[in-house]
């Protein structure tokens, strides 16, 4: 019975593993997985959450500041102060040394400070809100960059798998030819050199297949890293990955003003403008309200918990206004304002350069899409032609009308045509991602 349970467990585990191994990972699934598990996406989300804490930090400067202070002092030897007394009648002076203070002294006080006017604090509050908006937009940009990486890596893996499939088909065809020649050779109807040549071709194809298998494994591992997946997970892709569709965006003008990259830079410009205002605000005076209340006890013995042993307690309080007017600080504020303006000017240069780069990428993606479509159409026709040539050459070889060299060349030509088609499909898909990115629609790759 125990053996039966063990076998059942092993069978169930095998079924679960096979089911897991057969699970397909579409591009949409890969992107969703990356947005949930990749470190870059997680950190961008944490930055958004941390922005709330930064806002609370800045807001705290505008709220009342309440502090409690307590002190306990022991004066083992009280300092004596000299007092000179003059007799009004005789004019004689007498100097005496008298102790002022008590051996023990305890002070407990509560103080409150409230900013009434501080332009730097008010500007900081505005900047805090803008900072939150910046992190939200920056997270969107991080997600888009991650989507682009995932798509490019995903298509690269698929292209290598198509290349592997081409080699395996070619290997299967060449192996069949080798088996036929081997049978003919055993019956004395074929030459040994022909058998040796087909064996060499089979061996070369097996070596090429192993190289591509290794390349596929490396690219799959790279894809898993990009999406944050464990290396032990299995990846299977749908056969419709390289489907081509007509993109109307190729013939439409592209507006880059809504691109996330521009939005991030624009929000950075707002932050720099607020930073400049914060520096300018240091020219303004500051006004704050203060209040305090304290309780002080002193005497010859430990004042706390003492009962009528010469310890005297008294309270005090006060309220006031603190006004600070900056007059001259060695042109420090002026220098910082100028530095802040230069930072704004530099960012404007970056914005102009980024717009130029985005326009370049958009136009290049259009050209690449058009060229890729033409190349794909040409390569598809070439694949059909190479397949037809291979079929004709194979029939001719069987009928003794073609040489083995002609057959092997036809097989290689067919394989090359298929690889060229796969490469052109990869180029198209990469250009498609760039065009979608140029239109600011990368998240459309996530199919709901």
Indicate the radius of gyration in whole angstroms: 41 Å
CATH level-3 fold name of the largest domain? Outer membrane efflux proteins (OEP)
Structural class: alpha+beta
Output the CATH class name of the largest domain.
Answer: Mainly Alpha
Q: What sequence of helices (H) and strands (E) makes up the elements?
A: HHHEEEEHHHEEHH
* Tally of helical runs: 8
The proportion of residues in beta strands is 5-15%
Major pleated sheet: 4 strands, antiparallel
Molecular shape: elongated
Question: What is the β-strand count?
Answer: 6
Low-pLDDT segments, ≥5 res: 1-20
Helix fraction, binned, reads 55-70%
CATH superfamily of the largest domain: Outer membrane efflux proteins (OEP)
Strand numbers in spatial order across the main sheet: 1-4-5-6
Q: How many discrete structural domains? A: 2
Oligomer, anyone? Answer: single chain
User: How confident is the prediction overall: mean pLDDT?
Assistant: 87
Descriptive notes:
A four-stranded antiparallel beta sheet has the order 1-4-5-6, with no helix packed on it. Strands 2-3 form a two-stranded antiparallel sheet. The chain is elongated, with a radius of gyration of 41 Å. β2 (80-86) and β3 form a beta hairpin. It has helices spanning 2-21, 27-37, 39-59, 119-186, 192-227, 260-280, 332-398, 404-438; strands at residues 65-74, 80-86, 93-99, 104-117, 286-299, 312-324. 62% of the residues lie in helices and 15% in strands. The chain has eight helices and six strands, in the order αααββββαααββαα. It folds into two domains: 24-63 and 118-284 and 329-445, Outer membrane efflux proteins (OEP); 70-116 and 290-325. It has 448 residues and is α+β, with helices and mostly antiparallel strands.
